[in-house]
Specification:
The structure is a single chain. Helices cover 54% and strands 8% of the residues. The protein is α+β, with helices and mostly antiparallel strands. Among the domains are: 141-223, SH3 type barrels (Roll), CATH 2.30.30; 227-315; 329-412, no CATH class; 470-532, SH3 type barrels (Roll). A hairpin with a 3-residue loop joins β7 (494-499) and β8. α1 (14-45) packs across α3 and α8 packs across α13. The radius of gyration is 59 Å and the shape is rod-shaped.
Length: 532
């Protein structure tokens, strides 16, 4: 084989150049056969696995892409299979792998393969692919497969080979040219056609004129190569997993929705029970008031009986007097009886003389209550209307024994009411509902306990009530959190302690142990705090 050089080319004669060209093509053909032997060894021995390839196809597509990849390797191995099937005297008739393509369908019938090669060799010493294709048409009838099966049996195959077809589409570049179908169709709407010049193309069935009426498809279902089928199966599996995930998310969403509805129903039932409890509590208070009134009436009846008994005693203690002495109607025994009753009444009161020596420093309201009760007892003992009116003025009630007794019982609750209300107001983050749960027990003495509270405490009660009636306005006393979900204060609890107009000052519970306990914010930067 010659090595071409630009300076020596002109000196070469025809015979030497022709010999060199033939040797070059002979070497190409020999190297192709050698490559087919090496590829078959790589495939059969599994040497491709040592290179990290999972399959022989993967090896071909990775390492031999620039040489045609797996498709060319498959053609070389198929050509080698045809040559190995031929006897020794016919092997030299196939000088290159591309000539064996029309003979692939006859590998399973060696006698017909040998006959086709012998017929083609008689016409030409070195037949081409087209010559082999014509010989195949002579040996294998149109209505028979290479294995001798009839046309009826061939129709049961998924896709059959066609001996000869012609391109009938005017838009196809091979219009009018004939070719041979040498391999199974990759799908049900295309064929692999080898033309007379050796070129192989994938042509649509609609572009072919079926000269032999041999393109038969048993099913319209589309078929795919192995690698496509695996990819489709993977896509179907991912689609199945996605559907399963969406189903689970839908199921969880339905469960959450059902839970929310159940929670709303429970909250509504709790609210109804709370309203019922409040109604029952109010009814109990009214019933207790009626019982107190009945008890007061019973006590009044008892006092009336005692008064009647005292009058009777006084009448029994009278002594007969003459007309001039009639003005003095009491005897010493009557005076003693009266003094005894007065003394018993005074024993139930406080020592008013001690209050004149040292005025009370604390709980003046309690002292006034005791003073009013003392005057009430004096009025009852002495039947003194002025003392009864004085007791009513001090206690702030009607000047009747029943009203004064009822008012005294109310004022007995005052110290406990002030203590309970101050304990609630002292809690951090106190709400109007928490205050109202305690204050409604002492609603009958609201004006009394408000008078005992400081100005700061009454202002706090007013702010809590305002915040409860206007929940959409953030103001002093509102319990808030930050409105930005990306801030750490979004889940923290704070209380508005100062109103600066457009801004408010918030004291955060989580900053109690830090040096900085408050910060300023615009109202739109905050939201009402909700328990998590």
């Amino acid at each position: 084989m010659l090595t071409l050089d630009s300076e020596q080319t002109t000196a070469l004669d025809y015979s030497n150049l022709n010999t060199s060209i033939q040797e070059t093509f002979t070497a190409i053909d020999r190297f192709e056969w050698q490559a087919s032997d090496e590829l078959r060894l790589m495939r059969d021995k599994g040497y491709y696995q040592d290179g990290g390839h999972k399959s022989f196809e993967a090896y071909c597509e990775s390492e031999l892409t620039k040489h045609g990849g797996y498709r060319r390797v498959r053609d070389l191995l198929s050509a080698k299979k045809v040559v190995d099937t031929l006897p020794e005297e016919l092997k030299d008739k196939t000088t290159k792998p591309s000539q064996t393509r029309p003979l692939l369908r006859l590998v399973k019938t060696p006698d017909k393969l040998n006959e086709v090669v012998a017929i083609a060799a008689k016409e030409k010493p070195f037949p081409t692919a087209a010559d082999f294709a014509k010989a195949v048409q002579k040996v294998v009838p149109k209505n028979m497969s290479p294995t001798g099966t009839s046309r009826t049996k061939q129709e049961k195959l998924k896709t059959q080979l066609c001996n000869s077809v012609t391109v009938s589409s005017l838009s196809h570049p091979k219009y009018g040219e004939s070719g041979v179908i040498e391999a199974d169709a990759p799908n049900n709407y295309q064929q692999i056609v080898t033309f007379a010049d050796g070129e192989r193309l994938l042509v649509n069935n609609s572009d072919l004129a079926d000269l032999n009426d041999a393109i038969v498809s048993e099913s319209s279902e589309r078929t795919y190569p192995k690698e496509y089928s695996e990819a489709i199966a993977a896509i179907e599996e991912r689609h199945k997993q996605e559907l399963e995930r969406l189903f689970q998310e839908l199921k969880i969403g339905l469960q959450v929705e059902a839970g929310a509805k159940a929670e709303a129903q429970v909250i509504e039932q709790i609210q109804s029970l709370q309203n019922l409890y409040k109604q029952q509590r109010e009814q109990n208070i009214q019933l207790q008031q009626r019982l107190d009134e009945m008890e007061s009436l019973r006590q009044l009846e008892t006092e009336n009986q005692q008064l009647r008994q005292r009058i009777q005693d006084l009448e029994n203690s009278k002594e007969p007097r003459t007309g001039q002495d009639w003005g003095n109607t009491y005897t010493k025994q009557g005076a003693k009886a009266l003094n005894k009753k007065v003394q018993q009444a005074l024993e139930k009161t406080i020592d008013l003389r001690s209050l004149t020596v040292e005025p009370p420093k604390e709980n003046a309201q309690e002292c006034l209550r005791l003073m009013g009760m003392a005057l009430k007892n004096l009025a009852s003992a002495m039947n003194n209307t002025q003392a009864l009116e004085a007791a009513a003025i001090i206690l702030g009630s009607e000047p009747t024994p029943t009203a004064i007794a009822y008012r005294a019982e109310q004022l007995e609750m005052l110290p406990q009411a002030v203590s309970d209300i101050r304990a609630v107001l002292a809690k951090p983050g106190c709400t109007w509902q928490e205050f109202w749960d305690v204050a409604q027990e002492y609603e009958v003495i609201k004006s009394d306990y408000l008078a005992e509270l400081t100005t700061q405490e009454t202002d706090l009660i007013t702010a809590l009530q305002t915040a409860s009636t206007e929940p959409n306005t953030i103001q002093v006393g509102s319990i808030v959190a930050h409105a930005d979900p990306y801030r750490t204060l979004y889940v923290e609890r704070g209380e508005v302690v100062e109103d600066l107009g457009e801004e408010v000052v918030v004291a955060w519970d989580c900053w109690k142990e830090q040096s900085k306990k408050t910060d300023r914010y615009f109202r739109d930067e905050l939201r009402f705090w909700q328990p998590q």
